[in-house]
Amino acid sequence: LRGMAPWTVWVLGLAGCAAGWPIAVTAPRVIRVDARGLPGGDGGPDRPFQTLVEAVAAAGQGDVEIRVASGEYPGGFPLRPGMRVAGGGAVLVHDAAACVVRAAGGLLENVMVQGGEVGVCAEGPVLLRSVVLSGQRRAAVQVAPGAVLDAEGLQVEATLPDITGLELQPGGRARLSEARFDGPFQKAVSS
């Protein structure tokens, strides 16, 4: 169902065929963001939001995909379970806050996260796919107690000396696949 419009698609499953009833499968709602968009957007393909903060606020609950056009996006944002934030091209999210992306869950992919005390604070089940982190002041990624991080194609660049690439707090877990750590880290991974 990936890439389909956000309406309910009727599928006859095996159980549905036997019973003669259609089974409803709902595709995630899609919200679009483009920093070059006009003010007052609604998140649709013709009127995207200008900021990630607007898109996340409009996302509400349930499964949602936030498609982010190439561009620079100041300000951090929360990532929650059921939310997918996917960059299309060079997407730069930056902030000076304690945590640029505070992730209680969800999927973040194809974006670059710059700055902050910590780039991504994983506080639940989080998937990072093809994410680049740089310019953090303490740690690129922090995994809280009880949180689980799954990272594929993660690239962490230490631009300041003495930072940690991946900080696992007691009880936090991480699985890295094809991860790369470059620069003057105090520790690439600490636990």
* Poorly predicted runs: 1-17
> Largest beta sheet, briefly?
11 strands, parallel
Overall geometric form? globular
By DSSP (H or I, 4+ residues per run), the number of helices equals 2
Helix content class: under 10%
Report on this structure.
There is one protein chain. The protein has 191 residues and is mainly beta. It has helices spanning 14-19, 52-59, and strands at residues 8-11, 23-26, 29-33, 64-74, 77-79, 83-94, 99-103, 106-109, 112-114, 118-122, 125-129, 132-134, 139-143, 148-152, 155-157, 164-168, 173-177, 180-182, 187-190. Strands 3, 4, 6, 8, 9, 11, 12, 14, 15, 17 and 18 form an 11-stranded parallel sheet that branches. Strands 5-7-10-13-16-19 form a 6-stranded parallel sheet. Helix 2 (52-59) links the parallel strand 3 (29-33) and strand 4 (64-74).
Features:
2 helices, 11-stranded parallel β-sheet, 7% helix, 6-stranded parallel β-sheet, 191 residues, disordered N terminus, mainly beta
Topology:
Layout (H helix, E strand, L loop, with lengths): L7 E4 L2 H6 L3 E4 L2 E5 L18 H8 L4 E11 L2 E3 L3 E12 L4 E5 L2 E4 L2 E3 L3 E5 L2 E5 L2 E3 L4 E5 L4 E5 L2 E3 L6 E5 L4 E5 L2 E3 L4 E4 L1
